[in-house]
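Section: Multi-chain targets

For targets with more than one molecule, the full set of components is provided together so that the structure can be written out for the assembly as a whole rather than chain by chain. Components appear in the order listed by the source. The example entry contains two components.
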Amino acid sequence: MKSLDAPRVRAVVRKELLEFRRKRTIVVTMVVLPIFFLVEPIVSIFVAAPQGSSAALDHFVILPLLYMLLIPVITPSTLAAFTVVGEREQGTLEPLLTTPLTSQELILGKAAAIMLPTLALSYSIYALFLGAVRLFAHPAMASAVFHNGAVLLALFLFAPLVAGWAIVVGMAVSVRASEVRVAQQLGTLASLPIVGVVFLMALNVIHPTFKVALIFAVVILAIDVRALRIVSRMFDRERLVTGTRATKS
Amino acid sequence: MSANTTPSVSHGTKIESALVVDKLTKRFGDRTAFSELSFEVGYGEVFGFLGPNGAGKTTTVRALGTLIAPTSGSATVAGISLSPKNGVAIRQRIAIMPESPGLYLRLTVSENLEFFAGLYGVHRPAARIKDALEAVNLVDRASDLCGGLSKGLRQRVGLARTLLSDPAIMFLDEPTSGLDPVAALEVCNLIIGLRQKGVTIFLTTHRLDEAEKLCDRVAIMNQSLRTVGRPDELREQLFQRALVVKTLAPLRDPDQFFAHLSTVESWRSELPGSYVLSVSDPKVAAPEVARGLVNAGADVLSIAEAQHSLEDVYLELINDDAGTGTT
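Its structure, encoded as tokens over all components, is:
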């Protein structure tokens, strides 16, 4: 990746956050979507009566907790899908490309601007959920949740990694898509691998141990960095402006 | 706001021109957008780039602005050689206003300008934004959302945006397109103001009256360059000089009458009592024609040199293309 100009990246982040705040649909979507992913954990931990030994309960709460990892995956997909094709549709992409801003700076700035509200929202929901568990859940269930310190830690540590994955996939789709709606629909596909991993854990195919978490963290981080570079390379100014790929003489 | 008019040094050679284009060509597959363009634009010059729709004007601006890569040829933009590795450096020294200003409609005028000032790394952005808004008479609308502005006001915000970075060259792509006459006049007046401040402007337009009023020189293109020069030079190149003579009543035998005048090369009548005389020097011919008409007993209404507009030049060249099958 070429050298980045931090003030230009900051300018993109500031502008994006300002635009998010002014778009009511974005704010509503960002807040409403995660609620759907709280239904399963709430039902499992607050509604279901605790049954079995404390070891069994410890194991029972892992899946509802991991289910909440879908919040940082789903939340940014709509925003990420809008990044490039949205600028193109509203006619702001060409003026943006006439500035000294590089493709990498634009991609990084937009990714950072989506990451910030995603993490703020995800961590707020996690904190509220855990606070509610501490205060209102059955003591045996609350004990089981807080007994899974490693899973809780993973929840917080994995949030930026899986959000990064969703953002990069959404932006890759946005660079290539011809319209926002298509990009948003395809962008949600980013959640499939994460859903798959949670599903495999539910079926006990993958056991959530510290070693597994570490391996997953390293792999996702490597994929995120690599994918960010690929998206930067996919960002072909000529194709975005004219709809035609650059040709060599 | 002063324009950056300092000539740059490239490869040890002092570059006097803001823009040097040499045989620049762009093809999209089999389709040629423009071919073998060669011209220069001096610092402080307002250069008009004229042509019909689809002539390649916007594509030329995009190529010179590093948005698209030319297929062949070379160019030096603001003293920097046009190449992908110089993209950032070139874009730092120029400003482009596309046909649609492309503003963020949910942001205010100030917020839009702050964003672009950040992208150009403008020092003391608040002062520069104030200067730019003053230049386009929009200080009192700084806090308005761009979505609430009329098209004309948005164009003015677009112009303010191009002023932020004090560019060596401003590319204005059809800046009055789609504007009503009053808004178009306001934009023209702003460009005149910039011209007086010595800003180098590359103006693409198909409004010929606008080009004639604003530009020091114009290029007329239709995929390839048809001509470049000052509007008066182009008129002289293309049209024979002529006198327009109007009489109260038609001459009895104009053929015989004009044949006796040594300074008249040929003549034609457009309306009864109105004659266009081809002459080599109107100042010499006019007195002879006036004397002849008076001696012949004609009631002379007027004798004046025929004025060809830039539109005449343009139509002559573009119709020529249509005649030869070039589009």
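The radius of gyration of chain A is 20 Å.
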